[in-house]
Amino acid sequence: MSKSRQPRRPSKASLENVALFYLERFAASAEQLRRVLVRRIERAARQLDEEPAAGLALVDDLIARYRASGLLDDRQYAGARSRSLLRRGTSTRGIRQHLAARGVASDDIEAALAELGAELGAEPGADADGDPDLAAAFAYARRRRLGPYRPAPARADCRLKDLATLGRAGFSFAIARAVVDCEEAP
């Protein structure tokens, strides 16, 4: 059997290494990175029977320094993540919830969604007329093979089921009806 590792007291250098390694692998908001580092400090404090206060101060300093240098930018993170979620077919309500759970401020979320609407309206031949929810609903329907993406013989029989599926995904009834009743897929 191997010996269990002795926990080490988190230092400024070790926390910075952990933070940089995490940011190399994942796009993260400032709050996400804070949660990762705080968990690490609290685990070490529990194992060493110490108070985590000194380590928590190091985390705050590190986050502030990364924000000042531009390494952590919640607005940029919110924009990139919202575009990704929209392509997957997530409603704007779902995007708001997802970003809020990751600690992004509401003004950054609203700015990202406004930017998303502007990008959709600027696309040549945009079928969604700048409405992110409608574009996301079509993407969701395509991915789940609902409405116009369902084989023609089964469309009428599955209309209510498709409306309910889109409703559970967070889309309004008007958007769900527009997608399901669309004659041909855009």
SSE topology sketch:
Blueprint (H helix, E strand, L loop, with lengths): L11 H14 L4 H19 L4 H17 L4 H15 L3 H10 L4 H17 L9 H13 L7 H4 L3 H10 L4 H8 L6
Helix pairs in contact: 2-3, 4-6, 4-7, 5-6, 7-10, 9-10
Describe the structure.
It is a single chain. This protein is elongated. Helix 4 packs across helix 6 (106-122) and helix 7 (132-144) crosses helix 10. It contains ten helices and no strands. The chain folds into three domains: 12-69, no CATH class; 74-122; 132-180. It is mainly α.
List keywords for this structure.
186 residues, mainly alpha, 3 domains, 10 helices, 68% helix, 0% strand, elongated
What is the total number of structural domains?
Answer: 3
Structural class determined from secondary elements: mainly alpha
What is the distance, rounded to the nearest whole angstrom, between the alpha carbons of the first and last residues? 61 Å
Tally of helical segments:
10
Shape verdict: elongated
Q: What is the N-to-C succession of helices and strands?
A: HHHHHHHHHH
β-strand amount: under 5%
| Arithmetic mean of pLDDT | 89
